[in-house]
Amino acid sequence: MGWNKSDILNAAMVGLTLVASVLAVPMMGSGQNHPVTSSSIPGIGQLVR
Fold this sequence. Notes:
Elements: H1 5-28, H2 35-40, H3 44-48
Region (Disordered): 30-49
């Protein structure tokens, strides 16, 4: 496998960005305001509330 440090860093940044966005959306507003997040990740709205 030809993994460079830049490849690993890019993958890590993408993963962290996705996790941060998923966690930040329910905190900013209720799950109903963001149908994509609430439908793609069922239960996250109830967990935050």
